[in-house]
């Protein structure tokens, strides 16, 4: 039964790609770090919205608000960091990743890692650098990743594609690509919350970064008629 289900998913994926006019290489070598390998990898060409089988709307449009919120919340923190003094930017405490700028760099760099594992593509800047770039440069890189996720969500996405991960205890586990995509959002939310904790402790004050705040600020929540 498991083999039948996998075959059905494979045929469904082929049909989606045929409808969208996509081309792919099912076994492209992955250049990921040794701790993570792709069981198989598809290279998908970004196609114009007018050619989408869904009639011009992003195929994964149910995820757009979640990723727009992710980019919006990171952007709010970067804007606040521009206003901080050098001392405030370096503030940290026990139980968090680090100071606000270092944590924002960790969020953005990690997004690149997840994106690479899902697409086998990445920006041309070094995501492994230990020293964070300037806040302005972080803003530029965050905007680039937001655009990349936007494009990613306009093509068919197989959430059950298997990626092999090495756990901290050395064991290897199969993880669906959909879980990795969810991790992008969870990881960002977790560390943005830590930054707000540092802001609170240092007297800067936390930012309102919730989904309702995002909806109001971006006109995704409007007065009822």
Descriptive account of the structure:
By secondary structure, the protein is mostly helical. It has a single domain (34-39, 60-217), classed as Up-down Bundle (Four Helix Bundle (Hemerythrin (Met), subunit A)). Helices cover 50% and strands 6% of the residues. It contains seven helices and three strands; from the N terminus they run H-E-H-H-H-H-E-E-H-H. The protein has helices at 2-20, 64-83, 86-89, 100-119, 135-152, 177-201, 211-217; strands spanning 36-38, 162-166, 172-176. Strands 1-2-3 form a three-stranded antiparallel beta sheet. Strand 2 and strand 3 (172-176) form a beta hairpin. The radius of gyration is 19 Å and the shape is globular. The protein starts with a helix and ends in an 8-residue tail after the last helix.
CATH class: Mainly Alpha
Return the domain count.
1
How many beta-strand runs?
Answer: 3
Backbone shape? globular
Q: How much of the polypeptide forms β-strand, as a percent range?
A: 5-15%
- From the N-terminal CA to the C-terminal CA, the straight-line distance is 51 Å
* Radius of gyration, CA atoms, in whole angstroms: 19 Å
Strand order of the largest sheet: 1-2-3
Number of helices: 7
Q: Give the SSE string.
A: HEHHHHEEHH
Percent helix, as a range, is 40-55%
Mean pLDDT: 81
CATH topology: Four Helix Bundle (Hemerythrin (Met), subunit A)
The secondary structure category is mainly alpha
| Stretches with pLDDT under 50, minimum 5 residues | 16-56
- Biggest β-sheet, characterized? 3 strands, antiparallel
Question: Please, what is the CATH homologous superfamily?
Answer: dinb family like domain
How does CATH name the architecture? Answer: Up-down Bundle
């Amino acid at each position: 039964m498991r083999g039948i289900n996998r075959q059905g998913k494979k045929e469904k994926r082929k049909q989606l790609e045929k409808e969208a006019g996509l081309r792919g290489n099912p076994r492209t070598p992955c250049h990921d770090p040794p701790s993570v390998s792709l069981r198989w990898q598809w290279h998908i060409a970004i196609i114009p919205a007018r050619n989408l089988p869904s009639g011009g709307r992003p195929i994964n449009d149910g995820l757009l608000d979640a990723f727009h919120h992710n980019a919006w919340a990171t952007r709010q923190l970067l804007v606040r960091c521009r206003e901080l003094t050098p001392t405030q930017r370096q503030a940290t405490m026990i139980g968090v990743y680090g100071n606000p700028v270092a944590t924002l760099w960790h969020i953005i760099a990690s997004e690149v890692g997840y994106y690479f594992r899902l697409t086998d593509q990445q920006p041309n800047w070094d995501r492994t650098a230990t020293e964070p770039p300037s806040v302005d440069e972080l803003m530029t890189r965050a905007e680039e990743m937001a655009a990349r996720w936007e494009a990613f969500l306009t093509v068919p996405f197989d959430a059950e594609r298997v990626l092999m991960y090495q756990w901290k205890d050395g064991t290897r586990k199969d993880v669906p690509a959909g879980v990795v995509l969810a991790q992008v959002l969870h990881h960002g939310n977790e560390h943005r919350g830590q930054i707000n904790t540092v802001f609170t402790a240092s007297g800067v004050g936390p930012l309102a970064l919730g989904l309702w705040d995002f909806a109001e600020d971006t006109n995704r929540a409007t007065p009822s008629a």
